[in-house]
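Lecture notes, unit on binding sites. The following record was shown on slide 14. It pairs a sequence with S-adenosylmethionine.
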Amino acid sequence: MQEVYLGDCLEIMRGLKENSIDMIYLDPPFFTNKRHSLSSRDRCSHYSFNDVWDSYKIYAEYMQSRLIEAKRILKDTGTLFIHCDKSANHILRLVGEDVFGEENFLSEIIWFYKRWSNSANSLTPNHQNILFFSKTKQYKFNKIYSDYSETTNLDQILQKRSRDIHGKAIYAKDLDGNLVSSDEKKGVPLNDVWEIPFLNPKAKERIGYPTQKPILLLDRIIEISTNEGDTILDPFCGSGTTLVAAKLKGRKFVGIDISPEAIDLTKSRLESLVKTESALLNKGRLSYINADEKSLAILSGLDVLPVHRNAGIDALLRRNYLLKPVPIRVQREHETLSEAIGKLSVAALKKGAEIAFLVSTNTMQDLFDLKIENSIVKIIKSPALEINLVIEQQEQSSNNLRNGLVNV
Ligand SMILES: C[S@@+](CC[C@H](N)C(=O)[O-])C[C@H]1O[C@@H](n2cnc3c(N)ncnc32)[C@H](O)[C@@H]1O
């Protein structure tokens, strides 16, 4: 089944067969009381949808009638995910429990992302909520595992767990009292806080539909709740993200939207599938911290802001110089001064800096060979290097003195 319908999802769902869908993901209007609009990157298309309501009761009734239909067409093994944010989280949790039963509310997934925002008088909103329900207790759920956290110690990973007579978790031992190794190191079961990057403005996947969600988020929902060949429904499909994710993962899909532009967009996305991968998810957050601990320790005490995801800059001074940023880099152990200056000056010039500082850490020898008069990079010695140089000078002069005395 690969179908895309134009119309009110209430009407369209009424026409779908009961017990026919394996998973439903809904990303309905969020009760923001705004009209959401955006243009495509080439500015040729303009998309919008209405999210203005007279009262929360009208919104709750609107959602309730659609959830009742959704439940009817869901298989007994099926699950349903409602995407929302703080505007309607409380309303949808109550309405959802009313329709599916409190006992079938499984989790509230927190989709967490980093994003700049100008919420001057409040906290920056960096998450949205996904309410996870099942139709019955016999729901399909695929356990997936994530990497161990940096704080998990090796024993915890390598050794099998069991319980003592008091039910306390202990490392399992064999009859001779030796620790037993765990059979398979799968990782830790996925938890309910998911860090998945928001689509950045330059991502190829971004097509300019307001509130477009990343395919990577849908990937995870699809993986935990369905198998290949299963059928997924998105009754508020917008630009078709769920359907694209479903198609890429070999699932069948049904999409519905009330807006003709959304349906056209969905159809064209399904024809040429584009997905943006996330280096953050593939490599892990730690890979973004380019300055190693040693380098950052050298900068501690300075009024700087560590920088990630930049190959040449470790930190920015909090104050500007000539209204421009002031980048800083710490020379790495196996890096010559010229290499470090090269990396820093390229990165600093790209950021429009007028001055940048390189903290040299190991040798000043090649400094004399460098042509740095016109460079924006100023070199300062790390305290450790300064101390070593002073000690070396002292040793040299006391050697000279001793040699001189001997010569006399
Ligand atoms: C939050 S957006 C969905 C965005 C989508 N998840 C994406 O990644 O592009 C909500 C969508 O619901 C649609 N919509 C609003 N009321 C609807 C209704 N009664 N039936 C079907 N679609 C509706 C809007 O046109 C809009 O595209």
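Take-home: The first strand starts at residue 2 and ends at 6.
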